[in-house]
Design a protein that fits this description.
The complex is a heterodimer of chains A (444) and B (348). Helices cover 75% and strands 0% of the residues of chain A. The longest helix of chain A is centred in the C-terminal third of the chain and has 41 residues. Chain B is of the alpha+beta class and 348 residues long. Chain B contains nine helices and ten strands. Chain B is globular, with a radius of gyration of 24 Å. Chain B has two domains: 206 residues, no CATH class; 125 residues, no CATH class. Classes of the chains: A mainly alpha (444), B alpha+beta (348). At the A-B interface, helix 6, helix 7, helix 8 and helix 11 of A face helix 1, helix 2, helix 3 and helix 7 of B.
Chain lengths: 444, 348
């Protein structure tokens, strides 16, 4: 028993420590690293450690918890958000430009810790409720996804249109951003259809298929914007306390948890979309609650999706990591569930402690290195990674996706429209319309 | 209410149309989605169409260093013009944008008892409406203009102008008094139960033609659409502004019950929660018990998913309101006036 506990503690700590390095690197998604570890695991499967799920699983949990918490740092300081963080970019960027990047990081981390607390709180209820929810909602997923898609389109409000010489001029000014949003959604959906049927890359793992598209849709446009705008990051302050009340924290955490958990449970829905829905559902209008909620949503989405794999009787695998692990290991019973919950709590505590160090190191770094140079470096890392994992075909996808991802930046429309890359093809496939559309597009 | 609240509650009520949820599953149909789409449609029409095509007689752009007397006078003259010309005069006053994320806040009070317009220049706020420290206006902060004719406020006396788009007012002369209508392009024809019924009938007709049969499933589609849209209109009646419920038979917005503000967190969240609970229950009722052998007791579901969470939310809300009231009692005079509703809140 003591040996098992020690194994779980050490493995989850090791995973968290590794995440401190990968979490800091912009655009290096945890699923890519996890994939490399799984390949490594398959190579050493015959050894004592390689064959031990109580080493591998807590390690993976440490990796994912640590990455989710620590990846906030490049998201805020280097402006390279992953797709689940697109909605938190604007308030956190504002904080950064006010010299309050540290504060924004801590608010986001507060949300993440709250998210861990909520997951621990609801853990005893998951087994029964999720199996029922799955049975009841399963046949309805196709229209629920379309419902979310419809809301994303309809809830985008015009930017501009306030000033203009004529009514028509004002109308056109307002509709430019709306049309750009719809165009982004449709183009991303079209790309998604192609990628899911005839992607020009050969990969072993499901996630890598879509990874270059995500980098192109979300990561590269943001870095290009940073390079072109020539942003000068002001001096960052490290305050002794963070400006936030208990009620704001509570509201942010509960909203983020609901959105993140919905995203973790529902196929295809990401933490960013879950966060958007939760923000609207809880009528959030405070920037601090928003940042906290996005921190909670991102964590609950990634960690929750992995956790679902271990929920007894639920039999749900959501997210790239869970799907990858399911190929080599099937968790069973309460013992595994408790083990993974313990690993989650340990990793969160360690990651939160490490966050302070990582953020101070980043502040020190951006004071000494030109921000534009860092953006170029980020661009180089992203491109190299895409090429290393997916080859020339992946680079091609990344380039096309970047073109689509630039539309919202140019026209100030909502960047989450890029999620059409997954939402549209999957929603139509679930409803059975996918093959007909694929035939129409000449993909079959 | 917020757009999402309208959307999800309309979807939930659409799922109550007999047979609709089962039809969605059995025919792989997006029928329930139509409920949500038509549930948000009234605001879509207003905020994406009406707002920009509305004709203004006066468009006022305050300077970066605003003169409150000038703003007040512009509004006062527009009211007088409506009385003099005996026709509706529409005014739009812009926000004061100072940077990408900075706005100079100001408020407009139309005090009909004193027949004057008072404009107060406030601090600089960011897009989250958070005042920036040390940004209080150094110039003249309060401006007044007398109005030569009688006028009547129909919505609220004070309007805060902060971010994005400024407010619009319609000044309508009526029996010797000019009525002030807040954002006159909002909640007019788009928020009428007549339009909801018409949309339902049109969709019924289209589906009937498509399937070549009048009754089924056309009536179901029509009911989902009409119910979805009507849900939005009825929910809006709980606010302050009200809607033109039976356009074109009625010409004006009927007053709301003033039970809540559209941006209030608790009623919005409670409605979302109850809507999701209802939606899930309808999915359960429509699911195949043979294929998925799940049994949920109606009583347990009501108790654990509806009654207890609602009671907890209401208790939490009451506690928060109590502490907020206590804070207002100890706050300086006038601080309680800060809570007003503006166009952005209405936009949802």
């Amino acid at each position: 028993m003591v040996a098992l506990m020690l194994k779980v503690v050490l493995s989850s700590c090791a995973g968290t420590l590794v995440s401190a390095v990968i979490g800091w690197l912009p655009a290096l998604h945890v699923y890519n690293v996890a994939m490399l570890f799984i390949v490594f695991h398959q190579q050493v499967e015959k050894t004592a450690i390689g064959n031990d799920p109580y080493v591998i699983m807590p390690f993976m949990m440490g990796l994912i918890v640590g990455w989710t918490i620590l990846n906030t740092v490049p998201t805020i300081f280097l402006g390279a958000p992953d797709e689940s963080a697109v909605l938190m970019v604007f308030p956190t960027q504002k904080y950064l430009m006010q010299g309050r990047g540290y504060e924004a990081t801590m608010l986001s981390a507060l949300g993440a810790l709250g998210g861990i607390g909520c997951l621990l709180l609801v853990a005893p209820l998951l087994s029964k409720t999720l199996s029922v929810a799955r049975a009841v909602m399963g046949p309805h997923y196709f229209w629920i996804l379309m419902l979310i898609l419809a809301y994303m389109v309809l809830s985008e409000f015009p930017k501009g249109g306030d000033r203009g010489p004529t009514r028509l001029a004002r109308f056109w000014d307002a509709w430019k951003s709306l049309l750009a949003g719809i165009l982004t959604l449709l183009l991303a959906g079209w790309l998604g259809f192609i990628l899911m049927r005839k992607a020009p890359i050969n990969t072993t793992f499901e996630f890598s298929n879509i990874m270059p598209a995500f980098v192109g849709l979300f990561g590269i446009p943001w870095v290009i914007q940073n390079i072109m705008s020539g942003t000068e990051v002001p001096e960052q302050h490290i305050p002794k306390s963070v400006d936030c009340t208990g009620f704001i924290a509570f509201r942010g955490i509960t909203g983020g948890f609901l959105g993140g958990f919905f995203a973790a449970y529902m196929p295809i829905i990401t933490g960013g979309i879950g966060g958007l829905l939760a923000g609207h559902a809880t009528a959030q209008n405070d920037e601090r609650a928003f940042i906290i909620s996005q921190g909670a949503s991102k964590l609950v989405y990634y960690v929750g999706a992995f956790l679902l794999l271990f929920v007894p009787l639920a039999g749900i695998a959501r997210g790239g990591l869970a799907n990858m692990l399911r190929t080599s290991y099937v968790p069973h019973g309460e013992k595994d569930f408790l083990m993974i919950l313990a690993a989650m709590a340990i990793a969160a505590a360690l990651a939160f402690f490490m966050l302070g160090l990582v953020v101070r190191l980043t502040i020190w770094l951006i004071k000494r290195v030109d921000y534009r140079l860092l953006s170029w470096l980020t661009l180089a890392i992203m491109t190299t990674l895409v090429f290393a994992i997916t080859g020339w075909g992946g680079l091609l996808i990344m380039l096309v996706s970047t073109g689509i991802g630039m539309i919202p930046i140019v026209y100030y429309s909502r960047r989450s429209n890029c999620m059409g890359v997954l939402l549209i093809p999957v929603a139509l496939d679930m409803a059975g319309y996918g093959p007909a559309i694929a035939r129409f597009m000449g993909l079959q | 209410m917020k757009g999402f609240t309208h959307f999800i509650s309309a979807t939930a009520l659409a799922s109550c149309v007999p047979g609709a949820t089962a039809y969605a599953v059995e025919h792989t149909s997006y029928i329930i989605v139509l409920g949500g789409v038509f549930g948000i449609l009234p605001d879509t029409l207003d905020f994406k169409l009406n707002k920009f095509l509305h004709k203004y007689d006066v468009m006022h752009e305050p300077a970066a260093e605003p003169d409150p007397d000038e703003i007040a006078a512009t509004i006062a003259r527009a009211i007088e013009r409506a009385a003099a010309e005996q026709r509706q005069v529409n005014l739009h006053t812009h926000t004061i944008k100072l940077g990408a994320d900075l706005w100079r806040q100001y408020s407009i009070v139309m005090d009909h008892t004193r027949r004057e317009v008072v404009v107060k220049i406030g601090p600089i706020v960011n897009t989250g409406k958070v005042p920036q420290a040390g940004s209080e206006y150094r110039g003249k902060t309060v401006g007044r203009a007398k109005v030569a004719c009688a006028f009547q406020q129909t919505y609220q006396t004070e309007t805060h102008v902060s971010i994005f788009s400024g407010p619009s007012f319609g000044f309508i002369p009526k029996q010797g008094v000019v009525e002030v209508h807040f954002i006159p392009w909002h909640r007019s024809w788009s928020h009428s139960l007549t339009l909801a019924a018409l949309c339902g009938a049109v969709v019924w007709g289209i589906v009937a033609l498509w399937y070549g049969t009048w009754l089924y499933p056309g009536w179901m589609f029509g009911a989902v659409v009409a119910l979805g849209m009507a849900t939005h209109i009825i929910e809006d009646q709980f606010g302050h502004l009200g809607s033109n419920l039976f356009f074109p038979f009625t010409k004006e917005r009927s007053r709301g019950t003033k039970s809540m503000h559209s941006g209030d967190a608790m009623p919005n969240f409670l409605t979302v929660w109850l809507s999701v609970a209802l939606l899930f229950w309808n999915m359960y009722r429509a699911h195949s018990a043979v294929q998925y052998p799940v049994h949920i007791s109606a009583l347990s579901y009501f108790l654990y998913v509806v009654a207890i969470p609602t009671a907890l939310l209401l208790m939490g809300s009451a506690l928060m309101n109590a502490s907020a009231s206590a804070a207002v009692v100890t706050a300086p005079a006038g601080a309680a006036q800060a809570e007003t509703e503006d166009e952005e809140d209405e936009a949802g």
